[in-house]
Amino acid sequence: MMRFECMRRLALAATLILSPLGAHAFETAASAAYIYDQTTGTVLFEKNAREPLPPASMSKLMTIYMAFEAVADGRLAIDEVLPVSSHAASFGGSSMFLDTTDRVSVEDLLRGVIVVSGNDASVVLAEALSPDGTEAGFARMMTDRARQMGMTNSTFVNASGWPAAGHRMSMRDLGILANRLITDFPTFYPLFAETEFPFDGRVPSNSSNRNPVLSMGIGADGLKTGHTEEAGFGLVGSAKQGDRRVIFVITGLESRQARAEESTKIINWAFRQFAEKEVAEAGTRIASADVWMGASPTVGLTVAEDFSVLVPILNEGDIAAQVVYNGPIEAPIVAGQQLGELVIALDELPEKRIPLIAESDVPRGGFSIRLRTAALVLWQKFGPGGATEVPEEA
Question: Which residue among 57, 59, 85, 154 is the active-site one?
Fold first, then answer.
């Protein structure tokens, strides 16, 4: 339910009452976590989410993102074959078991990173894209690109997430990265749902995707596990049920089983405890703003796109919201011009801000309107209740 009220401030604001949320607090065994509803752009939960932590193999997602970018802009071809350096072949841990005699296609290398978490495959891609041909040079590129994407708590030392001093990512940054992978590369994203990649039949014991939620029938289709002794067990996951998609990141779990249980718990909570409710369709007038020196005294404020909010399933009240703008707004005004914001406050969830735009043009008023406005200002200043005399000079 939505109802509209107006109030006046120094910077004018209209108050809407949508409903106070009473979401039940979520608890997780993860040392840090981030849960994001992609469909509505709502952060559902954060725990130590902005703290730079060892990301283990989850940081391979940045290597994958940059490789996807390179394929998209033509710097790499998906069927191009790349050499394997002695440095790349030297890695242990999760591996495609490549050697220096191999020439591997970009497509196979991407699957090798995504499905079997190949450290060697990560380095082959890194060296191919690095400005100086080294993994270290690529790591510097990763850090710079992360900053451009708004990932301010990420610093990369290598391409694979191999334990190294200073190699850090926050769970929020991993959530931002997951969102970008899904949004920017829908053609490539299905690779994250693959459960097997038996490269060359080389090592059957290392051909399975370690993501525990892919086979649970709960809509999960990505993205990347991680584990080192320092980081614990972690997962960057995503699931889609109906029209909603949820992204989550966890780290610091004690075992594979704990990681699987926590991931399932998060997916169930995110989808079962919240429902999407439409607030307004594109073009809906939300409120009116006062206009200064315009041919019309007011202008309608509307939303450019349909938008909805998430509310807890058990919610029974109203959501508090405000239409905020600096007013009165001086004419001329052009239809579509952003004039303010709809600010929705949700208990236990970050506030949501939706741009409000002018519903129509408001040209500057003619001479008579400007004269009438000037007279009104003089009346408010010197008429009853205003100043009664002009003070003398000191």
Answer: 57
At 182, list the tokens.
């899904």
Inter-residue contact 340 to 309 (CB < 8 Å) = no
The residue written with tokens 């000191």 in the block is: 394
Residue from 218, 219, 222 nearest 209 by CA: 222
pLDDT of residue 286: 86
User: pLDDT averaged over the chain?
Assistant: 86
Please list the helix, strand and coil fractions of the chain in percent, rounded to the nearest 5, in that order: 30, 30, 40
Residue 60 annotated in active site:
yes
- For residue 32, CA distances in Å to 53, 170, 174, 248 come to 9, 9, 12, 11
For domain 32-272, the question of CATH label 3.40.710.10 is answered with yes
Predicted confidence band at 23 (pLDDT cuts at 50, 70, 90)?
Answer: very low
Which H or E element spans position 46?
Answer: strand 42-47
Phi, psi of 270 (to 5 degrees): -65, -35
Strand bridging mode 285-292 / 329-330 = parallel
Residue spans in the chain of domains classed CATH 2.60.410.10: 3-21+278-365
Question: Among residues 19, 59, 60, 122, which one is catalytic?
Answer: 60
CA distance 342 to 357: 10
Q: Check residue 388 and give its pLDDT.
A: 42
> 3-21+278-365 belongs to which homologous superfamily?
D-Ala-D-Ala carboxypeptidase, C-terminal domain (2.60.410.10)
Q: pLDDT digit string (tens) for 215-244?
A: 999 999 999 999 999 999 999 999 999 999
Token pair 């020196």 in the structure block, residue: 293
User: Would you state the structure tokens that stand for residue 185, as one six-digit string?
Assistant: 């590369």
| Domain boundaries for CATH 3.40.710.10 within the chain | 32-272
Please state the pTM of the whole predicted model: 0.80
CB 173 within 8 A of CB 153: yes
The arithmetic mean of pLDDT across residues 47-64, rounded, is 98
Split at pLDDT 50, 70, 90, the class of 60 is very high
Give catalytic status of residue 224 as yes or no: no
Alpha-carbon Rg of the chain, whole angstroms? Answer: 27
Given a contact cutoff of 8 angstroms between Cβ atoms, the answer to whether 282 and 306 are in contact is yes
pLDDT at res. 137 = 98
Which one of 31, 59, 85, 117 is the catalytic residue? Answer: 117
Please, where are the H alpha helices in 153-240? 171-184
